# Entry
Amino acid sequence: MPAWRSTFSDLTRMQCRVLPLRRQDMQLLARYDAFFGLPDSGHVAMDAVVFELATELRARHDLKTPDALHQAVAIHPGCDEFWTRDARLAKAAAGRIAMIVIDETR
# Structure
């Protein structure tokens, strides 16, 4: 059984870092930077194939560009799961990748 591995794009890293920078929360920023630097984390480049898939997802499911790019980055290299807080994204991913919707109300 392969070890757990997370993948991310530069878009994911950028979006995670905005709020700590805006709030000048250097502790949270350092935690995100440490996560993205873990040896079990892998960077996925957003190449032309990812943009083509994102275009298809955006057109078919009326997704916003960042959401379509996030999903395409996960689908293209064959990730097993896509974790999100946005349940609306599950429909676009149906049959392509398992969606894990995190419910923060609990």
About this structure: The first strand starts at residue 6 and ends at 8. Strands lie at 6-8, 41-43, 81-84, 98-101. Residues 10-23 form the longest helix (14 residues). The chain has a mean pLDDT of 86.
